[in-house]
């Protein structure tokens, strides 16, 4: 795979082909999709653009993909730097296509197959020496936008340099984490992952549990995603599950455990009805009106959702991972009964097949973590529970940075410095709500440690003191929470308002404005992901640059709690959008008035939250590395000059408010909030005056009963109140 790869030809526009094409179009590659006919390619891409969750960061990106027919558009194959085959999972069809394109692949071009289970060695039979040395399995996970795993499958004839090239390309430019696996049926993900999926259904049917109970047990409680078991089945598709299982049973006659891939009764019934999951509109779950109904494993009929009554999940759920699972396996309720029949055999099966399908247990674990979203792979799970507690040989698979090999000896995997996370760096100082870590090369990291990265007065004071100390010469602002920051502590304002301490409110806002106005005096980069909203966005916007993970939601939702942004957010949006003239400022005011969040980082750029110079880091695991690189090259922040804009700005904002009010999109109180933003935008002469107006307006809104009602409703329900 060439590092300068720009032109990608995807052959096949089905679920995976369209997803792969969308992923690389999102990243800015020149993508062509070929199908049996051009019309078929266009139709399938149009369908992909309508999917939820969306394949594309921006709706218009689908229009950048060129389409054609396999018969009439083979020039796209000749001109491609990489040809990715993603047609139907049938050996004869793939071999026939490769016979057609073999002589067309460029001398320096790459070619791969996206098969999810066919051995790659079978596909190169009869092909040229060049083709045989180039062909690699590139097993993407669906949907590629959201799942970063790439299983790379070489054959015995694949040039090792080709694999190395793919790894470099996908790690640097393709936003993938690669695991090289052995060329065996189903590779790691489907051989083991599908077994676990089927086994969960069999155990559920045997014990007479409900789909809700099993999903409650096999979700976050055991370190798995909320999609758990039955919701995951609907996402994957029962037809796909059945095809993969049938292939594994046929191709793995040596494995007695494939008996667990026999079709469970509920899957057989759903397949017969055509209720194959999300793509059919129903499977184990079905939406009726505004409610979801569930498939009953006993009656084979849909019924109202039943809330699981499993006290053990509550009582054990707060325990650390390993202790939680040890206790759950000893539990006498349905939870323990299910896990003894499900988890123990699943972990044992991993130890049985690992040497056959993987190069080491870390690779095995990574596939399940990156492809299925598990917090811990099976071998790390065995270590956490303790092998002796599972009746296994009591020898850990991980010791410090070393991994136990299949020969019983420990080895240190090659370092991956580009994928270091914040916890890998030493803490050199602690503040109120943050750690200071040394990233090396003279770059410090301030990493928020509060829940959801929430900012409070203590953090503001402590961080201000740290920055004023001069210790940080170059800075990366990041977080150790699950998101970058969900904003300023709303509870603080409610408490101050109810105590009548409006001076305390104003003092807190003034201190926050001062911090956000001064942080950029140091060359600094905010590395953000998840939520970067409210005060979190204002803090990030004070830095020289923002480096955002692609799925980051960015915005200023203060209007939803009856306020305006209070940490320079109005002035930031005024400066970031003034080059677009009055129209751009009206749109920025509307964003604040409606509390609009971006869908992702590219959308944030479109909306005006991010500037052209801000960076989207499409590989989320490289975010910290890229932020440090940017910090090393950064200069102190230079804010643009405050500019007058042409046009009747106030009148245009008033008209926007009136139109939205008529549509029911703004309430009267929303209009009052929008008026505050209007005056900051239109009546301020510079940054300082804008922040003075912002602070005054913020405190005025804190006196409003309607605003306090919104704040309390959000704290109590987690939902906005439009009053």
Task: List the main descriptive attributes of the protein structure presented here.
723 residues; alpha/beta; N-(1-d-carboxylethyl)-l-norvaline Dehydrogenase, domain 2; 2-enoyl-CoA Hydratase, Chain A, domain 1; eight-stranded mixed β-sheet; seven-stranded mixed β-sheet; 13% strand
The CATH topology of the largest domain is given as N-(1-d-carboxylethyl)-l-norvaline Dehydrogenase, domain 2
Strand content: 5-15%
- Please report the first level of CATH classification, the CATH class of the largest domain: Mainly Alpha
What Rg, in angstroms, do the CA atoms define?
28 Å
Please identify which CATH superfamily of the largest domain we are dealing with.
Answer: N-(1-d-carboxylethyl)-l-norvaline Dehydrogenase, domain 2
Mean pLDDT metric? 96
Helicity range? 40-55%
Structurally, how many domains make up the residues? 4
The major beta sheet can be summarized as: 8 strands, mixed
Shape: globular
Q: Could you tell me the number of beta strands?
A: 23
Our measurement of the CA-to-CA distance between the termini, rounded to an integer number of angstroms, reads: 57 Å
**Unreliable stretches, pLDDT < 50, 5 or more residues?**
none
- How do the strands of the widest beta sheet line up side by side? 3-2-1-4-5-6-7-8
Q: Enumerate how many helices there are, as a single number.
A: 29
CATH level-two architecture of the largest domain: Orthogonal Bundle
The secondary-structure class comes to alpha/beta
How would you explain this protein's 3D organization?
The chain is globular. The strands form five sheets. An eight-stranded mixed beta sheet has the order 3-2-1-4-5-6-7-8. A seven-stranded mixed beta sheet has the order 15-16-17-18-19-21-23, sandwiched between helices. A three-stranded antiparallel beta sheet has the order 9-10-11. The chain folds into four domains: 7-180, 3-Layer(aba) Sandwich (Rossmann fold); 189-357 and 383-411, N-(1-d-carboxylethyl)-l-norvaline Dehydrogenase, domain 2 (Orthogonal Bundle), CATH 1.10.1040; 438-557 and 597-639, 2-enoyl-CoA Hydratase, Chain A, domain 1, CATH 3.90.226.10; 564-596 and 641-723, no CATH class. The protein has 29 helices and 23 strands. α8 runs antiparallel to α15, α14 crosses α17 (378-385) and α18 runs parallel beside α20 (502-518). The longest helix has 24 residues, at 334-357. With 723 residues, it is an alpha/beta fold.
